[in-house]
Design brief:
mainly beta, four-stranded antiparallel β-sheet
């Protein structure tokens, strides 16, 4: 079975370092996306990395967040930022086993498997 596990969430000061990781088991060579949901708001795509290495960022995080694949383990993904208070929310990693169906890499509809989320509080 495919499993995704996020780690690295918690409380961080604005301008501090946020480093989230997502470990994928049961599958390899996946397209990976990071999503978040702030209190009272809809879930939104943050960043995505395709099998080819192509990266897409949401306009709201462009230049502030970095998504990457571990150079030693293709099943480990990271999201790194120096966050602001508006970045508070529950962060989810998601994986797609197939090619994107037209909604785009930042759409939740494109992803088949999801982690349980990790809570991030920025103050």
């Amino acid at each position: 079975q495919v499993q995704l596990v996020e780690s690295g969430g918690g409380s961080v000061q604005a301008g501090g370092s946020l480093r989230l990781s997502c470990a994928v088991s049961g599958a390899g060579h996946v397209c990976m996306g990071w999503f978040r949901q702030a209190p009272g708001k809809e879930r939104e795509g943050v960043a995505a990395i395709e099998r080819s290495g192509k990266i897409t960022y949401a306009d709201s995080v462009l230049g502030r967040f970095t998504i990457s694949r571990d150079n030693a383990k293709n099943t480990l993904y990271r999201l790194i930022s120096n966050p602001s208070p508006e970045d508070t929310g529950i962060y989810y990693c998601a994986a797609s086993m197939t090619a994107y169906g037209g909604y785009g890499p930042l759409s939740a509809y494109e992803y088949n498997y999801w982690g349980k989320g990790t809570k991030v509080t920025v103050s």
